[in-house]
Every structure is written in structure tokens, then in C-alpha cells.
Design goal:
The protein is α+β, with helices and mostly antiparallel strands and 175 residues long. The protein has one domain: 3-Layer(aba) Sandwich (Glutaredoxin). The chain has 4 helices and 11 strands, in the order E-E-E-E-E-H-E-H-E-H-E-E-E-E-H. The strands form 3 sheets. A 5-stranded mixed beta sheet has the order 7-6-5-10-11. The protein has a 4-stranded antiparallel beta sheet with strand order 1-2-8-9. Strand 10 and strand 11 form a beta hairpin. The longest helix has 14 residues. The radius of gyration is 15 Å and the shape is globular. The mean pLDDT is 91.
Length: 175
């Protein structure tokens, strides 16, 4: 298993990412995750939509909670052909509780707790804690990775290097 040390930090400490590093232009790995309703779902189920996939260590930490709530607000203005997914290692029960409490209805939360399949396939599994590192991927309708960003400091709120309006504009141009 490939290991990359010191690329990101968690709680101010450098950590080791394990798994396959994915790159722009490559097919997005198709992994199975678990919905908050305990249903298995493959990422290929979202093919045909432009997918923004974020990974976070946990939805229940204030920084990550804020990020996903912000994505939920941004999603209201996006074309229905754009889907936002957030993947964490939280148990599906915790994701469901968080989603209901946070009133998040435009972001699909998915759990990687069972096999760490997403973390390993996308190279964002933190070895020391078995959590996912913060990252952002944009996958086009054909399943090709068009954008990738690892967030260097897992505890700082960080914006993607693209704007939501750019994402909407690019998606509208393809229609």
C-alpha cells in the first residue's frame, strides 16, 4: 500500500496518507459506501451527474460541520445535474443524526467506515487515526476526475480553488 508522509496535518501533526493517489484526467475509482439509511451505494450510481465529492474526518467536528452546511447552501443554487457528496468515517447512524440535526438535504453523506474503500482508492486515508483527510474531487458525468484538492491542514476551514459559480457555469456550458 502506497504511503505519503507529511503532505497533510491533523491537529497540527503531520500524518501519513495511505492508498492510491488519483489524478485529474483519470477515471474516478468506483467504490461502495454506506448511506445513512444503511444502504450500500457505489459512486457509479451518480454517473451522468457532475459530482463534487468532499471527504472529511468527521461531520461532528465544528470545522467540517461548517464546511458541509456551506456546501448545502451552495447546492441550492446549482443545477440539479450537480450532486454533492461528503464522505466520512462516521457511522451511518451518526451521519443520519447529524444530517437531521443540521437540516442538510442537498448534500449526500456517505460512510466509508466499513472497508475504508474510498480512503484507500482516493489516497486520503489517514494511517494513524483511520480517518479520512479533507479533500475535494470533481468528477464529470462520464466518471473522469476533473479537479482534485488535498487540504493541507485538516483543522483549518479552506475553500476550494474554484468557485461554485464557475462550477455552475462549466456545467451549464456542457448542457
Amino acid at each position: 500500500m502506497k504511503e505519503r508522509k507529511g503532505i497533510v496535518t491533523l491537529a497540527g501533526r503531520p500524518v501519513t496518507l495511505i492508498g492510491n493517489e488519483v489524478n485529474v484526467g483519470e477515471p474516478a475509482p468506483d467504490v461502495e459506501l454506506i448511506t445513512p439509511d444503511l444502504e450500500p451505494v457505489k459512486l457509479s450510481a451518480f454517473r451522468g451527474k457532475l459530482c463534487v465529492i468532499s471527504s472529511v474526518p468527521s461531520l461532528e467536528h465544528p470545522e467540517y460541520d461548517e464546511e458541509v452546511r456551506h456546501f448545502n447552501l451552495e447546492a441550492q443554487a446549482l443545477d440539479p445535474k450537480v450532486t454533492i457528496l461528503t464522505v466520512s468515517m462516521d457511522l451511518p447512524f451518526a451521519q443520519k443524526r447529524w444530517r437531521d440535526m443540521a437540516q442538510v438535504d442537498r448534500v449526500h453523506t456517505l460512510s466509508d467506515y466499513l472497508k475504508a474503500a474510498f480512503g484507500l482508492a482516493y489516497g486520503v486515508l489517514i494511517k494513524e487515526f483511520r480517518l479520512l483527510s479533507r479533500a475535494m474531487f470533481v468528477v464529470d458525468e462520464e466518471g473522469i476526475i476533473r479537479y482534485r484538492q488535498l487540504v493541507p491542514d485538516n483543522r483549518k476551514v479552506s475553500s476550494p480553488h474554484w468557485s461554485w459559480s464557475d462550477l455552475q457555469r462549466r456545467n451549464s456550458a456542457r448542457a
